[in-house]
Amino acid sequence: MIEARGLVHVFHTKQGKEKTEVRAVDGVDLDVAEGEVVGFLGPNGAGKTTTLRMLTTLLTPNEGTAKVAGYDVVTQSEDVRRSIGYVSQTGGVFSGARAGDEVMDHGMLYGRTKAEVEKRGKELFEQLQLDGLWTRMPRNMSGGQKRRLDIVMGLIHEPTLVFLDEPTTGLDPQARANLWEHISDLRSKRGATVLLTTHYLDEADALADRIVVIDQGRIVANDTSANLKAQVSGDLVTLEVADATRIGAAADQLKSLAGEVEIAANTVSGRVARAGRAVPGLLRELDRTGIELESIEVVRPTLDDVFLTLTGRSLRDAEAASDAVDAAAVEEGAAR
Amino acid sequence: MRFLRESFIVFRRQLRMNLRNPAWVIIGMLQPVLYLVLFGPLLKGLVNELGYVNAYTFFVPGLLVQLGIFGAFFAGFSLIGEWREGVVEAERVTPASRTALLVGRLARDVLQLFVQALILVLLGWAMGMEAPLKGVVFGIALTLVVGGACAAASNALGLATKSEDVMAPVINMVMMPVLLLSGILLPMTVGPKWLLNTSDFMPFRHIVDAVRTSFLGDFDGSAIVWGSGWAVLLCALAVWWGTSTFRKESA
Predict the structure, then answer these.
(1) Beta carbons of B6 and A109 less than 8 Å apart
(2) Is B85 at the interface with chain A, CB within 8 A?
């Protein structure tokens, strides 16, 4: 469904007299097969949205080529647009217009008849739990309702490929969990192929078959969540000792399994391969040497750990660093 | 055919939103009415010195063009609001023609202007304006062309700046010389020669002149040709500019 090769997009920014080039997307290759749900993960400013805008024909690549739904994004952009649904970060419904009107007008711009879009729109409202909100204005909707309405807009012309840009940003946990269900339904009930961007690791983990990690405009990983996690050497085991004076002894015990450990006050932690098997032995040994534990915690690697392993930075640090790039991109937008 | 359908969908949506929130339409209308009612009478005593017989026959054409220019200049502000909410992007991701996205909006602006122009002219007649129907029809038509041009330029400017804070000063900067050099309030001919010569470079003055002469029923002079030429040229340029911003608009 998607076949992108060497996509590049360069923003030019000006600060005073100094002109700088920001390579927001710097040589991205991306393949998405029919029926796949792919999570496009990266910190803010990593180039996720810019890549998506190129794939949805809203932005012309400076270099590289991409075929989406079988059409070239530059030379056959209209065919691409006809085949895809795109739900942008901001959505696309005017806050002061009636939801149903907006959905119908949007569908009619795809060449559908009024009767068709009305029927389809009302079905979608029901399926996405928006019953009774047909004449309501989005400004009077909750965040979750508004987001589901955005998804209705993206599905009104029955696309086979759906792009979701940060679908759950800004939602409360309950609305988020609810939206996840609807996103999974896109494939299970509609057979759609989905490419979604997110900077939440748990979201990519929960929804996507495959995760593509992007950082500073380049793809740094492309695999299933399980395989990516396997790249992180082991589970994080954290011991909290009751008597802080014994922390050294506990650390030695853990070190024999983990190699490297980190000590902080009365806790010690380290990465242990297949912790499920190793921990019982560790506990016996601690017991035998009379080290009393306050708590023990075993955490499976998260995608955050994966990101740290891949890039040497945690997602949070990466976001702080990318603020400058974001500002540049905004400036670029304003200059156009 | 497809283009017309797409333009119509955009037009109908815009019109629906305008009717839901008609404050701007009313404010836009009120301004020329106030000019007519509160400034028109001041001209009554001066109008003979200005070379005109009837104050309203002189003043209504100027107000008409002013309505066309200034009302339409604000069209771009609502587009910025739509852009911010992702509406423009959502429209651009459909297969609809980019030109239709602009033309649908211009159609709304021109319709709005048409209604305002009718009210203004009827009020003018009620206050004693003397003008032949043929001349009034031509004057309104020319106003609509100018209004379309200004609305297209305003939409282009809105999408290019994407910020009310940037757009407002730009429009103010453009509006002052337009108001002062186009002879809307007083004819440029009463001023010194240098001012008249300067105003020759202001396209809108030629348009005001053209509407004024058509209201006098005089279709023979060169004023009509100059005014119409400028109006059509400005409109073509502005629509081209507007379409190209809708095409390449990014971020």
Answers:
(1) yes
(2) yes
Please name the amino acid found at residue A73: V
Query: Is residue A192 within 8 Å of residue A87, measured between CB atoms?
Result: no
In degrees and rounded to multiples of 5, residue A38 shows phi and psi of: -115, 130
B251: nearest CA in chain A?
A333
A330 contacts chain B (CB < 8 A): yes
The answer to whether B87 contacts chain A (CB < 8 Å) is yes
Q: What is the complex's ipTM, to 2 decimals?
A: 0.84
C-alpha separations of B149 from A58, A154, B172 in Å? 26, 33, 17
Torsion, Cα A284 A290 A292 A297, to 10 degrees, reads -30
Tokens of A123: 């079905």
Domain housing B53:
2-248
Contact list in A for residue B162 (CB cut-off 8 A) is 333-334
* Cβ A130 vs Cβ A145: under 8 Å: yes
Smallest Cα distance from B63 to chain A, Å: 32
- Summarize pLDDT for A98-140 with one digit per residue, the tens: 999 999 999 999 999 999 999 999 999 998 889 999 999 999 9
| pLDDT of the residue at A306 | 80
Q: How many CB atoms lie within 10 A of CB A238?
A: 17
Take residue B237 and report the two structure tokens written for it.
């340029």
Burial classification of residue B84, based on how many CB atoms lie within 10 Å of its CB (0-12 exposed, 13-18 middle, 19 or more buried) = middle
Smallest Cβ–Cβ distance between A56 and the set B17, B84, B93 belongs to B93
Other residues' Cβ atoms within 10 Å of the Cβ of residue B37: 11
| Domains of chain A from N-terminus onward | 2-229+309-335 (3.40.50.300), 233-300 (3.30.70.980)
Task: Compute how many other C-beta atoms are within 10 angstroms of the C-beta atom of residue A198.
Answer: 24
Q: Is there a contact between B89 and A92 if contact means CB atoms under 8 Å apart?
A: yes
